[in-house]
């Protein structure tokens, strides 16, 4: 990469990525860009394209396995784009640039809408909806990451998915153009927002009023169930595999298939297949990406040998390409 390239936002050379992922694994990237608003994000994206280098988006790093070594090109991190706005029921202009009070022309009556930039964390969104006495996001309690990553992955589970409450998303297309996509024109599916290469800069979420104690009770119950079943306090990247088609797997989840293949507790270096939940691989300290990749291959092979079912990865892998 040309060392004289100037970037439109904060830029860090040879930035370490491991601390920016929940698995705490990964090498460095040549340049890390940290935009603070949607326009800086667009300019950063354009500048990286013009420099002709690979460019990747990093949210909360909660669904990523990044190889050790040096990742070529640019990573754009959304961590400084955390803003969440309450959508007034009367607003003019651009909803993504409103202030927290609901806009330049605050409305006395508010709708139950939120506008969030891509770096807003999912826990902050869940909390905000609860604080406002709204339902619709509590099913995402305990899911880490940012709105942008969540939209891309269609984060969620048995209590609901992020796309259930999305009214529209704002994206950057390949040529750097910014546009809004209505929910009805999108086809999110299981763990996939199906937005291709488009960059999510934010979203409008539509929620419903609900008694706070009821929302609280649901949050409490969901979180308790999640904590009992998943190693939520350990370093992981969430579920490694997607659940297979229930017809093919006779209703067995990926985690159960891993367990039945006897792969729980397998270790490589500092990595281990969680003894609690077969679909999680943990970094118990000092694990390398190669350890996790080796475990993934071994688990896939064991499950295929035992059941004939090909496990498909949910976690995304960033490779150094040599
Ligand atoms: C303990 C734990 C529990 C979890 N539980 C769940 C769960 O119950 N349900 C669930 O669905 N997931 C779960 N996950 C996985 C993770 O929380 C979700 O996949 C989350 O949506 C990832 O968001 P992120 O911001 O961290 O994305 P990242 O990991 O940073 O990135 C994931 C992908 O999204 C892309 N991306 C990031 N930001 C943008 C953007 N602005 N525009 C376009 N693309 C972007 C990245 O390039 C990458 O391809 C869990 C993870 C952990 C560690």
In short:
The protein is of the alpha+beta class and 322 residues long.
Please describe what this structure looks like.
With 322 residues, the chain is α+β, with helices and mostly antiparallel strands. The chain has three domains: 10-77, Uridine Diphospho-n-acetylenolpyruvylglucosamine Reductase, domain 2, CATH 3.30.43.10; 84-215, Uridine Diphospho-n-acetylenolpyruvylglucosamine Reductase, domain 3 (2-Layer Sandwich); 231-318, Uridine Diphospho-n-acetylenolpyruvylglucosamine Reductase, domain 1 (Alpha-Beta Complex), CATH 3.90.78.10. Helix content is 25%, strand content 25%. It has helices spanning 38-51, 122-131, 147-153, 212-229, 246-249, 254-260, 289-307, and strands at residues 10-16, 28-34, 55-58, 64-66, 70-77, 84-88, 110-117, 134-135, 156-157, 160-161, 166-172, 178-182, 199-206, 208-209, 267-268, 271-273, 281-283, 316-318. The strands form six sheets. A five-stranded antiparallel β-sheet has the order 6-7-13-11-12. β16 and β17 (281-283) form a beta hairpin. It is globular, with a radius of gyration of 20 Å. It binds flavin-adenine dinucleotide. The site of flavin-adenine dinucleotide has 32 residues, from β3, α3, β9 and β13. Flavin-adenine dinucleotide is lined by residues 22, 56-64, 78, 118, 143-146, 148-150, 152-153, 155-157, 191, 199-200, 232, 236-238, 316.
Short descriptors:
322 residues, alpha+beta, Uridine Diphospho-n-acetylenolpyruvylglucosamine Reductase, domain 2, Uridine Diphospho-n-acetylenolpyruvylglucosamine Reductase, domain 3, Uridine Diphospho-n-acetylenolpyruvylglucosamine Reductase, domain 1, 3 domains, 5-stranded antiparallel sheet, 4-stranded mixed sheet, 7 helices, binds flavin-adenine dinucleotide
